[in-house]
Amino acid sequence: MITNTLSRLVAGACLGALMLSTQAATPLVLMTDFGTADGAVSAMHGVAYGVDPKLTISDLTHQIPDYDIWLGAYRLYQTANYWPEGTVFVSVIDPGVGTARKSVVLKTKNGRYFVGPDNGLFTLIAERDGVAELREIDEKVNRLAGSGESYTFHGRDVYAYVGARLASGAITYEQVGPVLPGESVVKIAYQHAVREGNTIRGIVPVLDVKYGNVWTNIPKALLDELQVKLHDPLQVRILHKGKQVAKVTAPFEHTFGGVAKGKPLVYLNSLLDVAVAISQGDFAAKHHIESGVDWEVEVSKVNPK
Q: How far apart are CA 161 and CA 170, in angstroms?
């Protein structure tokens, strides 16, 4: 009888240990404008592993151009929803490091966490996913020990440390710091996609940098309102600060192979937003197009003659 009871206890303990060991870790995802030529990113990894060596740490990118808060905001928008609920994102594009800008953790309504400076980085995440709660990081209790006199590396001393503590379960979200009004999140102003008659207006938020395709913030739903069909010609105008930079007429296609090599096309990118490209070519380079809130785009359906 004692032997059977002991066997059951041992079996139960082994099963419990197995269940604990197979529990999925909460991912910690890092994004900065630091590059990888020096030790900054490695230091952030080291701080996070110092909190919990079992953490799963991934890098979204560290190649954001220097101080480009808007592009950082877009890269979060582009990738966050493909990560599991509960994922913690640490984002550091912070030209105002050490100034009065707040350090925050934003929790979205779908349960992901975004750690970083409240300087516009969370503009698109807050708009799309909604703010469930916003908390200011209390650096008196949530800061790497011994870093109090370091004023220019919050990515290591505050954000990586707090993100790792959240992801590891060392602190709860409520222990981050005091609650802030959700609507107080700093947002970058930009032209939202709108339809005006036969024309849809938006911006070029980002380029598909590897291939030179020009992405827009115009969603498929607005294109559908124009009743655009496969192969229909569309006119695309791209303007910088109100001045026209490019104007092309190209067919709407599902794939780059829908037109001959070297020919332009309009298509839906991987986020189901309108984009324009040259098949096996570089549309942005050919037309000297960049991206950002001051790069506007207009897409119109071409009426048949």
A: 11
